[in-house]
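USER: For my understanding, would you kindly supply a protein sequence with its structure tokens?

ASSISTANT:
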Amino acid sequence: MILPEKKYKIALVGYRLREGGGDKVMANLSLFFEKNGIEIHNIIVLNSVGYRYSGKLVNLGLLKNDSNGIVNKLKRLLFLRKYLNENKFDFIIDFRPRRKAIQELIIAKFIYKTKTIFTIHSFLIDYYIPKNTWLASLIYNESYATVAIVNQIKELIEGKYHFKNVITIPNPINLEEVKEIDNVAIPIDFEYIIAIGQYENSIKQFDKLILSYADSILPAKEIHLIILGNGNKEALEKVAHKTNVFKYVHFLGFQDNPFKYLKKAIFLVLSSLNEGFPNVILEALACQTPVVAFDCKTGPREVIVDKVNGILVENQNLEKLTKAMNLFVEDEELYNYCKKNAFESIQKFSLDKIGEQWLDLMQIDKKIK
């Protein structure tokens, strides 16, 4: 008798399915896993959905009331425990930031009752792992694995916490999705460079980018700067006014389809203080748009080969950031060479190839050939 092939069930747990880098990875992996015959349940904390995903959606945000008090939080935790117990998942993969140590200990010990994989999406590992090493070991040491997105983060975790189950799997890029939606018309009739990210905090350093842009030759050549993302733009507008480039700097908010803006940009600029593995670099290169980026911790040097598919700038050196932007405008041969190499340079990060690394981790055979 031939036994039926096992049908795997995986719960992907995230903060939301919109805006965040970890959220995008979760959405992309849901597409890959379902394509490979795995039953996927997407469980999100906030009622916020924008990314394309596959599988069932379990929206805990719909259970959240305005007070968000202890009773309401307990209600959501009990609902989550019941849901996980009833569905008997083979794996839980957690993409959330995990800053509340006691809450995360409760979740790890009393709610997650199957093989659990925790993901770390930032060089600032305190967003994911408690500073207290004893609490951290209680949460993480019994997990199936902890996935870091670059080797530097893996080494940082191992050095501080001495976890034995940390592996590196980079973020994927869904090249099929990019190809479908990158060539959409936009109502812009000027040349521009682009930056993308939330500016509700200072990590993306768009204020410094505007200063660097103002010192460059780009405004004089009427090459504008477009910034996509959410946050309070008033402080950034003040910087643009003060440096006399306000008419060239445009804040277009969060865009569900950033690819149509990336495709038509001259290049992307990443001016961050720190990163994890910035999806936006992969997304730009997938649109055949070269990148100028600080060599910050961590991620840019994992993707950018200096003067091959972009320019890697000495970390936090604004003068060199300005020179790099000027170089891409002045040196047409270099720019065209980097643009020609952009798409091919990220093939190793394709969703299929990165997805296979996840299947290997969970020892699940790939179904789609």
